[in-house]
Design brief:
The structure holds 2 protein chains of 2 kinds. Chain A is mainly α. Chain A contains 3 helices and 2 strands. In chain A, helix 1 packs across helix 2 (20-37). Chain B has a domain at 4-260 and 397-479: Amidase signature (AS) enzymes. Chain B has 15 helices and 11 strands. The chains are: A mainly alpha, B alpha/beta.
Chain lengths: 96, 486
């Protein structure tokens, strides 16, 4: 049901690296799980509106007032790499 | 003399306020208990002994002053490692967050610190709360205090085991599809999942945001009421937290369930449920009838779609929530490349364990073009039908009763097929999908292994399920049993 190519495609969408072994395992396991989930297709859902949550609340708003936040060094304390109070990352845009 | 770790929270609270014991003594008794049994149970990812003793001394000063006292002042409590604790490592059971120290406290921690709890440690769990056995912890599995060869359930297995083994008087976990109630059932403790929106999720590391709720574990209903009260209420930092006023849960414990209308869902007696579970739960229901409750069958016709709908919705939400772990801002980061996408993919490949990857894959698949309507939208429609089933049932009934879990505690390694593990939550998932509250309480034993009874209540009717739980305890002694071979 799920082939190798689908596994690789979904992994790329999720930016999830997978080993060769994992690709094979997930191909079988996801096929198995989706096989069980096929039961959803049996249900009569005609005329039913989908719900995304059950909080029974809508449009929670607040005044747009600035609140005290954290100093950069506190927020950067867990950063893998930093420089001048900024997160340091690999180049996103390469020079032409 | 009674060992201090065997006291209940309400008993110990009395003794603390009467100054017959000190929080330092009580905390020391729990740290001693941790030293004695934790090597066998392995319920904690971190024991915070120094912090605990410091908080105990502060609690004793507060108790001496007699001012600003709370039922939890000076009480040793354990916290699931999914709940952010300021400057204290919060791993979510994952390599990804192995060294993560949150810059802030979760909303529940702010309330608990204001109450004056003593935090004894952070508890082990399935990675990012995905699992039913703690075997998906990136660090080690927790063992069931009732049988060390078996799992305590999960994902909040460490929190359940810590309370069952007397290493904490109460604890907090989180429940997305049964992660409080199932380990409660397997460890013979009370585990309550509140109504969606009753507890702030601010600072709870997100798994399935429309399903997650923090809730308490304790060894009896009265303690559970105290632990729930301490964290319940509106929080502007969580837009899904409800402004609905909070009931007084302790005064709801009247001790009687005479005339309480209890529905028994017909669809909750499915193939695959162990005969011992059926026998024990049927007996417990008869017991409730003898106590004066009116018991009738009720149909929740869409129950059979619950697990399938959940395993679309929860992984879909998880795949989005876990997109933040990219190795840039915090957490594990793969550094051996200068290529941006490769760094991100390897970070996630090495930072996440197998079950987390499985769910990210499942969720991404269900949300991807071509499958969105067939899976995700369809699952959301079924979610609406399941919620309607409960709405109708609660027009006729005050609470519903069922098994909490189809099995007793299973052996470590016994369930290797992912979908078989997912079926552990067959009786607990519908409550998360519908947003109602539920509690698992000690309901009996089979061959020395605990079996939980699940009580489901309508939205914001935690008072009713706690009242029934308390009444059942007064007529039984299952909750007073301690694991023998620790």
């Amino acid at each position: 049901m799920i082939d190798r190519e689908t596994v690789q495609n979904v992994a790329r969408l999720a930016r999830l690296g997978l080993s060769e072994e994992e690709i094979e395992t997930f191909k079988n396991q996801l096929s198995g799980i989706l096989g069980h989930i096929q039961i959803l297709q049996e249900a009569d859902v005609s005329g039913v509106s989908p719900i995304a949550h059950t909080s029974r609340l809508t449009n929670i708003t607040r005044e747009d007032i600035s609140q005290p936040s954290y100093p950069p060094e506190v927020l950067l304390a867990n950063a893998p790499d930093q420089e001048d109070n900024c997160l340091k990352v690999n180049a996103v845009l390469e020079e032409a | 003399m009674t060992e201090l770790y065997t006291l209940s929270i309400h008993e110990a609270g009395e003794l603390l306020r009467q100054r017959k014991i000190s929080s330092v003594e009580l905390t020391q008794a729990h740290l001693d208990r941790i030293r004695a049994v934790e090597p066998k149970v392995k319920a904690f990812t971190l024991v915070t002994d120094d912090l605990a003793m410091q908080q105990a001394r502060e609690a004793d000063q507060r108790l001496a002053s007699g001012e600003n006292l709370h039922p939890l002042t000076g009480i040793p409590i354990a916290i699931k490692d999914l709940i952010c604790t300021k400057n204290i490592t919060t791993t979510a059971g994952s390599r990804m967050l192995e060294n993560f120290k949150p810059p802030y406290d979760a909303a529940v921690m702010v309330r608990l610190h204001a109450a004056g709890i003593v935090m004894v440690g952070k508890t082990n769990m399935d990675e990012f709360a995905m699992g039913s056995s703690t075997e998906h912890s990136a660090f080690f599995p927790t063992r069931n205090p009732w049988d060390l060869e078996r799992t305590p359930g999960g994902s909040s297995g460490g929190s359940a085991a810590a309370v069952a083994a007397g290493m904490a008087m109460g604890s907090y976990g989180s429940d997305t599809g049964g992660s409080i109630r199932q380990p409660g059932s397997l460890c013979n403790v009370v585990g309550l999942k509140p109504t969606y929106g009753r507890i702030s999720r601010f600072g709870l590391i997100a798994f399935g945001s429309s399903l997650d709720q923090i809730g308490p574990f304790a060894r009896n209903a009265r303690d559970t009421a105290i632990l729930l009260q301490a964290i319940a209420g509106h929080d502007p930092r969580d837009a899904t937290s409800s402004p609905q006023p909070v009931q007084d849960y302790s005064t709801a414990l009247t001790g009687t369930i005479k005339g309480l209308r209890i529905g028994v869902p017909e669809e909750y007696w499915v193939e695959g449920t162990q005969p011992a579970v059926v026998t024990v739960v049927r007996q417990a229901i008869e017991h409730l009838r003898e106590m004066g409750a009116e018991i009738s069958p009720v149909s929740l016709p869409h129950t059979k779609y619950g697990v399938a709908a959940y395993y679309i919705i929860a992984p879909a939400e998880a795949s989005v929530n876990l997109a933040r772990y990219d190795g840039v801002k915090y957490g594990y980061s793969y550094r051996d490349t200068s290529e941006m996408w490769e760094a991100m993919e390897k970070t996630r490949e090495f930072g996440f364990g197998a079950e987390v990857k499985r769910r990210i894959m499942l969720g991404t698949y269900a949300l991807s073009a071509g499958y969105y309507d067939a899976y995700y939208i369809r699952a959301q429609k079924i979610r609406a039908l399941i919620a309607q089933d409960f709405e109708k049932a609660f027009e006729r009934f005050d609470i519903l009763v069922s098994p909490a879990c189809p099995t007793v505690a299973f052996k470590l390694g016994e369930i290797s097929d992912p979908y078989q593990m997912y079926l552990q939550d067959v009786f607990t998932i519908p409550a998360n999908l519908a947003g109602i509250c539920g509690v698992s309480i000690p309901g009996g034993f089979s061959d020395g292994l605990p079996i939980g009874l699940q009580l489901l209540g309508n939205i914001f009717r935690e008072d009713r399920i706690l009242c029934a739980a308390d009444a059942f305890e007064q007529a039984t002694d299952y909750h007073k049993q301690w694991p023998g071979n620790l």
